[in-house]
Amino acid sequence: MDAAYLETRCRLVDKTLDRFLPKAKTRPATLHEAMRYSLFAGGKRLRPVLCLAAAEACGGTVEAALAPAAAVECLHTYTLVHDDLPCMDDDDLRRGMPTCHVKYGEGIAVLAGDALLTLSFEILAQTPPTSRYGVGSYVSELAVASGSRHLIGGQVLDLEGEGTDVLLSPSQLRYLHESKTAALLTAAIRLGAMTANATPARLESLTVYGRSLGLAFQVIDDILDVTSTTEKLGKSVGKDEATAKSTYPALFGLEKSRKEAARLTSQAHNALKPFGKKAAVLHEIADYLLGRDY
Amino acid sequence: MDAAYLETRCRLVDKTLDRFLPKAKTRPATLHEAMRYSLFAGGKRLRPVLCLAAAEACGGTVEAALAPAAAVECLHTYTLVHDDLPCMDDDDLRRGMPTCHVKYGEGIAVLAGDALLTLSFEILAQTPPTSRYGVGSYVSELAVASGSRHLIGGQVLDLEGEGTDVLLSPSQLRYLHESKTAALLTAAIRLGAMTANATPARLESLTVYGRSLGLAFQVIDDILDVTSTTEKLGKSVGKDEATAKSTYPALFGLEKSRKEAARLTSQAHNALKPFGKKAAVLHEIADYLLGRDY
User: Fold this and answer.
1) Which range of residues forms the domain containing residue B83?
2) Rounded mean pLDDT for each run of 10 residues along chain A, 294 residues in total
3) B292 φψ region: left (φ > 0), alpha (ψ -120 to 50), beta (else)
4) Which CATH number fits the domain that encloses residue A121?
5) Number of domains in chain A
6) ipTM score of complex
7) Which residues of B touch A33 (CB under 8 A)?
8) Closest CA–CA distance from residue A178 to any residue of chain B (Å)
């Protein structure tokens, strides 16, 4: 994908997030600082970029998709903040920087996560409705994908799997990846499409694209955890293996994992056929994710 | 207030919550059990009861207000679960029972809180819109009241005040109580009124009622912490004093605190004048809260 395109989009997303977030000095300042610290820590903005690209693929505008793009990024950031807590993954480093609880303390990190989650719905409520979709549809979409049966459910399985020597079965691992990663990626894409008033058939195609992309993304994440270096990745690597965590490479080996990532990526490409040239960016994002080494 | 009335309302709220919550056996079962454990732990259901009563005071139906009533109770419960965590208030006992993290572990307690917060917006999105208010208004109302500038902001002040010997000033304490308690009580009431398509003037009167009631509630909570017994209250008492926490009695003494609670309660009554007899239940709730001893 064009690096300049990505950078322009990232800047737009950052500007939007800055606009929606309370200023760092707003009372209580510690909380708002912590929220901004985690939100502007150099994330790839994959979910918001996908949201905007999906809106365009369906003939909509970037402007209409800005609120859900920002909402999804706030939500994603809260999951990282809570995931890193000592009672969860206990990570000190995220994107090369101290994690939120290391910098601000555990109590503030819990509250900053809670506040980012709450803010994501406050932002989402400002999305313009279309003839097919109202704010109720948007909120349901995000709440279900990020709720107890999907995203948070995946975190629970992950948490329960840690510290045990028992590997998950392949189908359990797929469920874990679908919940932890694919659900929110797919919601980001669907929300973008909904702001463009996409038909149910189009939404369904994008759901297949999102799920395939999300699963590919997670398999690649597992592979990178084995093959990359701490420096490149900006977070502690080798951690999955150390805790006997179930990953694709642990269950299937590196070679098979790479093939699975490629298969899922091509499945994502196929799902975009109905969109023709309008889906160029979505195609490029899929290729970009498969090729990344950080 | 009529005890039978309250009990009937509580049963209706419980039934509604049971309907909106995933079954305890839904995967991942530990999470859904933990959510239900904290939600059905014998809470007074004050916020949902207020929500339903406000809808009726504005000529609306109980049915239309059930979703926001349930949403607000899920949100309130998540704040309790996260508040009790070791990195926050570190409480082992809540309503006479082990707190969520004592029973299920800290990781699950964080996630159960996150899931209840997320669910509250999923439920709220199902509230029927009126000619004046859509789902966007409902979601904004709850998100702002429970977000970083209000409810969570209050938790931060509370957290920062702990472990220090410095008492808050009276105006800081008022800000703390407004954020921690009054904001969500007021949102519960306003949401109920909105489902009844209340005029902006009516909403404003109910805002005064809610804020006064919420502040009175918090002052009384502080008083009970000093005067009640662990057995009656079902939670650890004397804890505020032990941690040199700023409370109304600590700042003003018991006598003045009781007078302030009465003053706020009468302010709440006055705000209900425009509603005439339709506000009977709201009047009774105010008297009930002032008279409670647990």
Assistant:
1) 3-291
2) 84 98 95 98 93 98 98 98 96 94 98 98 98 98 98 92 76 88 96 98 98 93 78 55 68 91 94 96 90 66
3) beta
4) 1.10.600.10
5) 1
6) 0.93
7) none
8) 14
